[in-house]
Give the backbone structure.
Amino acid sequence: MIGRKREKDILERCLTSNRPEFVVVYGRRRVGKTFLIKEYFNQQFSFYATGVARGNTAMQLRAFHASLKAYGSPEKDMPEDWFEALERLRALLMSKSTYRDPMSGKMVVFFDELPWMDTARSDFKSALDYFWNSWGSSQKDFVLIVCGSATSWITKHLLKDRGGFHNRITRRIQLLPFTLQECQQLLESNGNVMTQAQMIECYMIFGGIPYYLNLLDTRLSLAQNVEELCFKPYGELRDEFDELFRSLFKKPEKYLDVIRSLGETKKGKTRKELIENPSIDSGAGLTKVLEELEQCGFIRRYTNYTTPANGAFFQLVDPFTLFSLRYLLGSNAKNWMEYINSSGYHAWRGNAFEIVCLNHVPQMKAALGISGVATEEFSWQSKETTPGAQIDLLLDRHDGIINLCEMKATNEPFETDKTEYENIMHRLSAFQEETKPKKAIHITLVSANGLKRNKYSGVFQSIITGDDLFAV
């Protein structure tokens, strides 16, 4: 299994603890939640059941009943409701023939796609509540793992529940997309042959989503794969954008309104700017939407350096979502193989590389030797300088330094000419004049292919390369 060290450690502690464990695993669609649990336990469970996509209550109970029979339940008739279904599970688990983890001796039960089981007007949540509180929570040798992509359901009914599940969840695992380094491991294990620059571009399009990367055909180039998967009518990812949000949220329209609005601008929008869109809720509903989009990793919340208290921005940082908004939804780009030589492609590439960097700030800090130094990430936009100045990423360090980051995507080592040098110095001067920082400022280049030395290259105090972004 590639990566997932922290997650595997949590599962190991569940098996070695002396208490019952109720584990919630959540994260966006296709990120590998089911794969993680099944691989870690070698697909050996005391009981396993999965919800049925878009199924009604009868269909969910029928599927659960089939799982009960597969694991040895003698009952032939369908359970009438979820209380009866989970009572049958309790009886099954108490039998002497129940499979137990060979090392720990624990019963491990896995409910996959749990939110699908909670259909309209069913008694599922009450029954699960009763099952855990009346029996499961008193079994020291019991590990219950529930999993789901519907983040809004997981958050509302489990993580932030104020009823029967309040403080009952013992461990939570938020599964995040792979880093560049993990993507490299997966691609190489699959036999995909790419240069480092191509892997970065692959991340710009597909992000760190294992499912998407596993679709790549080893016989094709990256560009050919993008064409086949995303632009052909039969492409497996042609309609993934809509499926992605419909799987995560029961009412995806309000989430999509926010996503589309944020996709209109590179730097993101404030809450005030978002509610200028009449289709976006201006009340507590928007807070909930933004929180859940952030939990899923679609957006990040960051602040303006000069107004941290009320200058919060929300920025779209999921590569595949950004790519879909730009190219797969009403775009004029119908052929990726031709588009990759256009000026529009190079503009997208520059912006997409910045998103790669924003998703790898820990790796950037490691390259600077400040992994143990507390930092805050900011952006900044001038209000007084003419012409205007904008800095997309500032690392404000607690050791008395601010890294002003210049992120550049080029095929060759980045070369600073006179114009670029003057632009950098203008941004630096404007930032110093308007913010009057009390810390030293280091201009940092983040370049996938490094830096070409010349008389202007000394403007950079530090350089972060593609190799650094691939570090563990």
Q: What stands out?
A: The CA atoms of residues 297 and 318 lie 7 Å apart.
